[in-house]
Fold this sequence. Notes:
The structure is a homodimer of 303-residue chains. Chain A is α/β, with parallel strands linked by helices and 303 residues long.
Amino acid sequence: MSLISVGSLAYDGIRTVAGEKPRILGGSLTHFSNAASLKSKPSLVGVVGEDFAPAEWDFLKSKSHSIEGVEVLSGEKTFFWKGYYTEDFDIAITEETQLNALAKFDPKVPESYKKTPYILFLANMVPELQSKAALQCPGSVLKVLDTMNFWIENNAPGLAQAFKDVDGIIVNEGEAELLTGQKNLIKAAEMLFQPHFKILILKKGSHGVMVFTRDYMISLPAYPVKEIVDPTGAGDSFAGAFFSYLDAESQGGLDQDTVKQAAAYATVVASFAVEDFGVNGINNVSPAQVQARLDDFRKIVSF
Amino acid sequence: MSLISVGSLAYDGIRTVAGEKPRILGGSLTHFSNAASLKSKPSLVGVVGEDFAPAEWDFLKSKSHSIEGVEVLSGEKTFFWKGYYTEDFDIAITEETQLNALAKFDPKVPESYKKTPYILFLANMVPELQSKAALQCPGSVLKVLDTMNFWIENNAPGLAQAFKDVDGIIVNEGEAELLTGQKNLIKAAEMLFQPHFKILILKKGSHGVMVFTRDYMISLPAYPVKEIVDPTGAGDSFAGAFFSYLDAESQGGLDQDTVKQAAAYATVVASFAVEDFGVNGINNVSPAQVQARLDDFRKIVSF
């Protein structure tokens, strides 16, 4: 089994109440692979510019199985996002977006990635590109996409098509409400769950996560974090940890116990992500620390 | 062991998207005893007017160990509240409040209630009355109060004194933020937890509940309810189920496993409360239905 992820590579400029980082490694693919690599290193598909520094390449290589699918566009710079979070971390305010290389992203999933059964994760991006990547991977065991409010509001037809091209989605509370007009999350999940879906993951931030399949649902609170430093990438870290768990532990199988373990594990990994800027929260954590927090989480939750 | 509860008895006029009930039995004491009686019938302290109907007396008697502490004020009517809920059930809008007998409430805990060790629950009311009732019960194994935004905003000194007179509080998310100015609930709980407290219960509505003691914390999601009919009394039902569980199963002891079981049990009981108007949701439920939902909740949550 293996794990393929398609997403963005970026430089982020981030300001929170805890401090400011004018230019650090970011992007959905970065956070996904950083978290996934604790269990199973993914093969990456993304795009960067010529300014992508050697240290970032070293980081990506160390967190992935392969970077063959990461393209360098000559004459381009890497995607740059600058923003800040309000005091309660509820909202990210964008101050600057330079799409740069990402504007010309044309994902190609290398054939070498598809030699073993694989799970495909399509991070938030233009829905048409998600469809394109999904169609390159007809042999996937499971393919899931993430999205954001921008596409829901500005490209509903493209997103509707992308939903048809995958077997699951991961959205947050606000996106679920935007997609369905429904505040009751159980009803919203029912409306969102398409007949061909295998899984629907509903992220609730500091309130935890719900997972829906055809046969059952799961609901977990968040791991309690007192000092949030930077929530950027928490969702992609959750996804990376979740799908790497399924890759490593169940060959993509979705029985309730495995999915519950995966969701608990991913909850804990994501809790480390928000405790430092950028990739540092997870990058500096040991397997023993993850296991200790998972044991603690079980004591807090399981009855 | 026994359970004593001090609170309000009321007639409610309630309108929700599911329908309208112009005058049904309500009040914190009613919802508390309705839920508690599934495990352990409490002894009640409250006040009503002369209009309190025989059917309501029969209901109270059937759900309690004793109603010796329920006073009838001659020449008075029973407390009446009229309001409605917005479509997402987030906010209760008050249209009419007639305090009636409740304005003259002077709680007296009968000596007959205190012959065995007991837990004391003080539902939301004037903080000075909570202090008064608490001081009548120096022998309680555990005494906990509930409150509301009105007292936090209009009687902070009285509430601060009442906090000193109990060994625990039960508040919701909004009240915790109002009391501390802190949106991070873990930090808010830390600020609220006074050195003499044994327990702090933080209700998060559709997002579940957290319980804090000196030694550990617990966090549970809500039981997923798709069709909410009337959320009135859900918090008091949670409290009734929670403290009746401690009364029946641990003699008020607060080890982590027992408290977790109590919180899970109370979560499930409260989920029935919101599925019908007034007391009907819980009144019509069988022990087997509660147990089946508890088993289901464990499958959804425990890992």
